[in-house]
Amino acid sequence: MGLFKDMRNLQKQGQEMMPPEHRGLMGGFRAMKDTVAQANETLASMNADAQKAQYLMVSGRVGSAVITGVRQTGMFVNENPEVEMDLQVDVEGIPNYVVSHRQVIAQIAIPRFQPGATVPVRVDPANPSSLIIA
Q1: Cα-to-chain-centroid distance, residue 31
Q2: What is the pLDDT of residues 24-81, one digit of tens each?
Q3: Maximal C-alpha separation, the chain
Q4: Residue 17 to residues 13, 23, 107, Cα–Cα distance (Å)
């Protein structure tokens, strides 16, 4: 008898935690619609990042950067962490400058992205704070 009471209490707690707009049959459809909208936003962001990377690989100015700081953002893509790095960038024709950059790093490559390491970069000629690690 206690098992069914506990199950009923858990079900009630779950319903209370669910936002009111996602309750019931129509709410379930709203929840699915919201989830699909979030997925579309994520995919659009990933597509924009891929286009930016492709543009910078073709048109970006070649340079190097020294990593001065690394932080995890808490986001993972295919089990690879996204990190935020503080970089001191050196590109010919532009004075050295500091920029903060986010990028997904393959787990196997993490040891190469430690403070003090030098990495190759491609910098947007029109916007030096826009770059990729190449």
Answers
A1: 23
A2: 778 778 888 888 998 898 889 889 888 998 999 999 999 999 999 999 999 898 899 9
A3: 78
A4: 6, 10, 36
Report the predicted TM-score, pTM, of the whole model to 2 decimal places. Answer: 0.67
Spell out a b/e string for 87-106, using b for 16 or more CB atoms within 10 Å of the CB, else e: bebbbeeeeeeebebebebe
The runs of H, that is alpha helices, within 60-118 are none
19-28, 56-65, 124-133: which has the minimum mean pLDDT? 19-28
Helices (H) and strands (E) counted in the chain, each on its own, are 2, 5
**Residue 26: partners with Cβ closer than 8 Å, 6 or more residues away:** none
Q: Which two tokens stand for residue 124?
A: 């947007």
